[in-house]
Amino acid sequence: MQLIDLSSPVDASFWEPDPVSHTPMSPAEGARHMCKEMNEHFGLNLDPDMLPDGEFLNNDTFQLTAHTGTHVDAPAHYGSRAAYGTPRTIDQMPLDWFCRPGVLLDLRAEPVGAVGAEGIARAIDRIGHSPAPLDIVLLHTGAERHLGTPRYFTDFAGLDRDATAMLLDLGVKVIGTDAFSLDAPFPFILQRYNSTGDRGVLWPAHMLGREREYCQIERLGNLDALPRPYGFRVMCFPVKLTGAGAGWARAVAVLDEP
């Protein structure tokens, strides 16, 4: 069995619109902290110097949004109401959605902006394999080359409404992308809205989630390491954040044969 990591890191050195804060706690600090907490909460006294090298239990504190790094968007992320009922939060989603055969679609030749249904059709035709119901579709846009920089948030290809609907019509419930968003970049969307006044161009892939229940995996990585466009399984279980609209995930491809 071969495992391929499809996740991008959470790294406080990366440029982010909502910066990540990382406060490490050394093993020596951890020992002092643990002894202090034991005394305060349980009345137990222990001198940190009694521990080997005066060290124990280092710890790290991160402050970040649930949409930082590789993460799964739940239907609740798209709004508080949906045509199919109350949208589910990430802790309510069925686990079997996130362990399924994967299909990799290459969109690297598509320009910055929104890919339409014809672009998805071309990508499916190139591999000669159409996604089956509940397959996890991974979109390889090439956006990862800008990871950690401002361009990661502006220079990529997303999906328009018709492209997203096309995949959902095939029975897909989870669509993943190596880009910041399944929708087109914010500047592209706002430029189209300002020029047309059409509210339908405002994040149509996300908005479709108010009509049809599905999940997105955003900010995948290492998609170019996949040796073939299908014939592998994707595992991308989201962290169980109660009541949240998203959860971080360690996405992995599983190949039974090299």
Automatic annotation (TrEMBL):
| Top-rank taxon, per record | Bacteria
GO terms, molecular function: arylformamidase activity
* Pfam families hit by this protein: Cyclase
Record PANTHER family: CYCLASE-LIKE PROTEIN 2 (PTHR31118:SF12)
Q: Name one GO biological process term.
A: L-tryptophan catabolic process to kynurenine
The protein in question is named Cyclase
